[in-house]
Every structure is written in structure tokens, then in C-alpha cells.
Design brief:
The chain is built from eight helices and four strands, in the order αααββαααααββ. The protein is mainly alpha-helical and about 180 residues long. α3 runs antiparallel to α4 and α3 packs antiparallel against α7.
Amino acid sequence: MSAESPEQNEHYLRVFKRRFRDWRGSRPFWAGLFTLLGGIPIAYFPYATLQLGQMTLSMATTAGAGSLIIGVLLVTLGLTMWFQQAVRIFAGVASILLALVSIPVANLGGFVIGFLLALVGGALSISWAPGEPQGDEPEERAEATVPQQRAEPAEDFGPMYDTGTTVDANGGRNSAG
């Protein structure tokens, strides 16, 4: 190992941040995060017991199992968006459908918080597209940004409206001029 290698001189936190940024840029990161965060309140609120001073607020409902299933599925879909980009469209559609089902099943979709997060995450997943890799050589990028000039026609095609035409044997029309 030489003393000039960049890996040796960089701080490990800077290397981690750069690698995380590259990882995050190659997948629908925010879609997965919103979907994952949307599943947590949907699964949590039916089983939560909130204390407001001396008053205990419990949201135990008969739909607790359905809420738990929807929440766990949304968390799983969020992780799937991160680690399996090929199924991002399916995961996005499934997230939107589960978010809509959570409205009647899971206390208005986790008091609308989980519903909105899962809905936005699903929409982001459907709309995300992988970026195009940049060329290694700067000449390729420069040529791609230069607008192409329009070539002028080299021949004169005659008058615009030629009325003397005959039918060719192959079905086309030839000018009889």
C-alpha cells in the first residue's frame, strides 16, 4: 500500500457518507423510507395505550390483527423497494392499495399519518426511474450535449404539387414528368 492511496487518507465517516449517498442514489430510497415509516403507525396504534395525565386511552379494536398485517406488509414493501429495485412498480402499487385498505381497517390508517406516508411512498416508488450511468470519457458527455445541426437538402424535388402521376407496378406512384 502506498502512502498516496486515497483510501488511507480519508476519514472513515467521509467514506461511509459517500458510499451511503451512492447507495441511496441507485434505488428509490425515499419511497422505501416513507413506506416503511407509514407501516409503523398503522401497526402500532391499535395496540398502543396512551396515558394523558390520569386518563388512559386504549385503541384496542377487533381489527388489530388486520392492522398488524398491513403494517408489517408496508414495512416489508419499504425494505423491498430498497433492496430489490426491479419490483419497485409492484411494491408501489401494493403500498398504495394497502394504504387505502388501512383507512377502514386500521383506525383511519394510523390516524391518517400512516396512510399519507404509505401513499406518498407508493407514489414515489412508481414514479422513480434509475438514472443513466455517466460516461467515463468527457468527450462522450460533450458530444451528447452539442445540438445537431440540421442538414440542408442537396436536391431540388421539383414543384410542390405535381399532378401528372402514374401508378407504378409495385403499388407506388411515380411522377410522369
